Amino acid sequence: MKHMNSEVKEERTSNKKRIDLFLVPIVLIAAFLNLFKIWTDEYANAYYTAAVKSMLQSLHNFFYASFDPGGYVTIDKPPVVFWIQTISAKIFGFHGWSVILPQALAGIGSVLLLYVLVKRTFGVWAGRFAALAMALTPIVPAVSRTNNIDSMLVFTLLVATWMLFRAVRTAKFGWVLAAFAMIGVAFNMKMLQAYMVLPAFYVFYVVATKINWKKKIAFLTTATALMLAVSVSWAVVVDSTSADKRPYMGSSQTNSVLELAFGYNGINRLTGNTSVTGSSHKQSAQTEQQTASSETKQNSNSSADSSQSSNQRKSSSSQKMQAPGGGNQNGMFNTGNPGPFRLFQKGLSDQISWLLPFVIFSIVGLFAGVKFKGSYTTKQKESLFWLAWLLPVAVFFSIAGFFHQYYLIMLAPPIAAFAGAGAVALWSMYKQHNGWKSWLLPGGILTTAALQVYIMSPYVSSIGVAPIAGVGALGVILALVLAVRKQRKNSLTNYLGAAAMVVLLAMPAYWAMTPIIYGGNSMLPSAGPDSSSGMGGPPSTATNSKQSGFNGMQPPGSSSGNSSSNNQMQPPSGSSNGGQMPGGLSNNGQMQPPSGSSNSVQMPNSFSNKSSSSKRKSGGMNAEVNQKLLNYLTKNNTGEKYLFATTDSTSAAPYIIKTGKPVMAMGGFSGSDPILTVSKLEAMIKKGEVKYFYLSGMGKGGQSDVITWIKENSKEIPSSKWQSTSSSVQQGPSGNGTLYEITLK
Questions:
Q1: What's the Rg (C-alpha) of the chain?
Q2: At what angle do helices 491-517 and 23-35 cross, to 10 degrees?
Q3: 71 dihedral zone (left: phi>0; alpha: psi -120 to 50; beta)
Q4: H/E/C letters for each residue in 267-299?
């Protein structure tokens, strides 16, 4: 106990010291990567931005995280991050950057927290290098520059880690409760993904605390119970509320938060069985793929460097796409095929794996000489914590059936921590000529440089040969020189070691800047020369960057002037053109390429050059509305609650963002949620809640009967009254649809 008290006093004394001047540039780098030009992203991820717009309008919408102002359906995630985004929008005004800001600050905060966590045990230089590695991990700023949840999730889990470390140092049970309660808060950000760190928390507390087993079990049991209570608190309130007094729980099949948490957003991510009833949830994955692909077109013309990089942002949509996790070389969403080396495959390695070989060598060095029985040093205990975070998460991403590239940010903290702690440990072993351990440093440098050459090789057409050859040559030379000079102790050797670290971080730093250089994708963020595509993989062999996305798709009410039916989306099955999956996906799950020549589609005039627009409308979901359609719907609204109804959130989101008026996404995010029945819709129409319906090729799943009924009981509005013929209307994934009107007595 005296030892623990002395550690606390030492910590307080150290906190009173002046700011670490070496940390300042690291924080500035993180701030630049996370914040620069976020103000150019006007809509961010439109699905979530529309929810913030709706949540600003009432406490009811705020509490339930309603997607639409009418409180019809929620988004598919818990509300905590969106509460924070809504508060930010309330303070700074409703903008794309104001909903991104909390995540950007969380990304910077994670860098600072990792510095604090690593520095105290492994030394100040370990903390500095860990913080820098975290800041330069490409997927970290790529995610933090969007309004997706993961950056805030990682920050929250690092706060919980700080609390746990403090609990062990002070032997105070209150900090244990706080740490596990914080994981419960993280659960209300992204559900079961927050629990991926639990093995590390349990293992570390058992190994690091010096109390008897009865107390350990009692403390952990109590803390776990508190964590579970916090985790399900919002879910229990929502699921206990009568369905007619709250929005439908988006992307669930039973209108239940708990079903969503432990099913579609939980176990099904591991198994890849994202279909709960038939193919409805597989369609949700396909919807994300096609909306992200359409965003490629928008970003390719809106980036400030579009004139330089248009040939670098090739289309990924021409590649065949199979079910999540397998089927082709890169898998769906470019996440590779399951297997022990998945994190080294294309599409994943360039997001997170740049330093993995060095981390492996660091782990060997940090655990060298550890005996199974006996006492452990503080360094060994905390190394065990980071290892227990790293391994289960790495195993999950190696075998999981369905996830997105940006989920890999969960691996960033342990990789950065080992990079920092390992750099100092391996350098010490090298300088002390510690037997075989002294070879770990040059070995780690050599293998890491080799992996980085492998990661960059598919991008030779985008980045050139020079950086690839430079990293390879310098890595080999520095590793060999360090090996040769192992017996020498002078300043030159120190400089060589520092130079090696710079070489290993050079290309991750460049990759981390690619969302700024080439433009980012707010719906499916990733890093790399194709960062704007949302696919995050190497360029395809497409001959024209204008093929990005889906050439024949326009937002509601627009027309590109090309009337070819081959360039239009196929309607839902049951229509005269049935047989195609929504969004141009064939029934075997493969993407249908656009027909016609590569230049058959004119890009929107308003985004044709960098001077025509200062904002990047990269919402991934029709980032512009059709003004003629909006004018018609507004003029002819006779008091209906909803401006119009449509099949899915893709068509609804931009109208909610622009007008703040309720728009009904009848089938939720992808159009597959079984929310409506024919009888319920009839009742809504009779009450005067909705009368206009925009139906396109999007959405199917559980609402085919409703769509059929709408077509049979409505009158079609002539397209001349609402459809724009201007090619300047931004294109998107909804396709050419039809506007219907229904009035029942």
A1: 27
A2: 20
A3: left
A4: HHHHHCCCCCCCCHHHHHHHHHHHHHHHHHHHH
* Cβ atoms of 552 and 569 closer than 8 Å: yes
Measured CA to CA, the distance from residue 724 to residue 627 in angstroms comes to 8
Cβ(206)–Cβ(381) below 8 Å: no
| Residue that is written with structure tokens 């949700």 in the block | 284
CB–CB of 522/511 below 8 Å? no
C-alpha 161/C-alpha 159 separation (Å) is 5
At residue 744, the pLDDT reads 85
Q: Which of 181, 278, 308, 269 is nearest to 232 (CA)?
A: 181
740: which strand partners?
A: 693, 716
Place of tokens 């109804």: 645
Order the strands of the 738-741 sheet from edge to edge: 664-665, 645-646, 692-695, 738-741, 715-716
**DSSP-derived secondary structure for 676-694:** --HHHHHHHHHTTS--EEE
- Residue 642, pLDDT > 60, answer yes
583: Cβ contacts below 8 Å, ≥ 6 apart: 286, 287, 290, 550, 569, 697, 698, 733, 735
b or e along 377-407 (b: 16 or more beta carbons within 10 Å of the residue's beta carbon)? Answer: eebbbbbbbbbbbbebbbebbbebbbbbbbb
Q: Using the predicted structure, report yes or no on whether residue 565 has a pLDDT greater than 80.
A: no
Spell 227-241 as b/e; 16+ CB within 10 A means b. Answer: beebbbebbeebbee
Q: Average pLDDT in the 224-233 region?
A: 98
Work out whether the CA dihedral 676, 235, 231, 112 comes out positive or negative. Answer: positive
The first and second tokens of residue 366, run together, are 């940090």
85 by DSSP, 3-state: which? helix
DSSP 114: H
Dist. CA 158–CA 140, nearest whole Å: 14
Q: pLDDT of 184-207, one tens digit each?
A: 999 999 999 999 999 999 999 999
For the chain, the first-to-last Cα distance in angstroms comes to 79
665 near 714, Cβ under 8 Å?
A: no
- Is the pLDDT at 231 greater than 60? The verdict is yes
CA distance 434 to 562: 72
Nearest to 613 by CA among 730, 521, 471: 730
Q: Locate tokens 């909390």: which residue? A: 102
User: In 611-677, where does DSSP find H-type helix?
Assistant: 627-635, 649-659
Confidence of residue 288 (pLDDT cuts 50, 70, 90): low
Each residue's pLDDT tens digit, 295-305: 444 444 344 34
* pLDDT at res. 604: 31
Q: How far is CA 165 from CA 205, 324, 378, 621, 641, in A?
A: 9, 37, 11, 43, 52
In this structure, what is the dihedral angle of CA atoms 6, 11, 16, 19, given to the nearest 10 degrees?
Answer: 150
Mean pLDDT of 73-86: 97
What whole-number percentage of the chain has pLDDT above 70? 74
The more confident residue out of 620 and 707 is 707
Dig out the tokens for 159 from the structure. 């706060």
**Residue 4 CA to its chain's centroid (Å):** 40
Contact 160, 179 (CB under 8 A): yes
Q: At 716, which helix (H) or strand (E)?
A: strand 715-716
Is the backbone of residue 435 left (phi > 0), alpha (psi -120 to 50) or beta?
Answer: left
* Distance in angstroms (rounded) separating the CA atoms of residues 717 and 719: 6
Return the structure tokens found at 363.
Answer: 């782990």
Range of weakest confidence among 185-199, 224-238, 524-538: 524-538
Q: Which residues, other chains included, contact 606 with Cβ-Cβ below 8 Å and sequence gap of 6+?
A: 612, 613, 728, 730
